[in-house]
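pasting for the record
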Amino acid sequence: MGGLLEENVEQSMTAAAETEANELSEWNERNRLVVRLLSEHPVYEDGDRANVRAYLQTQQEERPDAAIIRAYVIDRRNQTVATSTNPTMERRTVGNLAGVNGSPSGISMTSR
């Protein structure tokens, strides 16, 4: 009897873990798609930080397919935030982004 119960519990836990892993994988893929769509916009071509910030803020407010908490454009040369939906985050190093206000960093897009 005990062996059967253990087997049922193990099967149940395995099924729950697989379901959660699949959901996490889908969530990750949706986020990758949103980042890709945001990063391909022509607003980045002229390098105007105010225009980029305005675009990111608009996307943050209006995208029905993603809950964007914050978004950054990272300058890969010096590993700092070039532009952000929150201007106070600009010029911070990438290492200082994780855990800001108790939450992990938001969507990041690297500069070209």
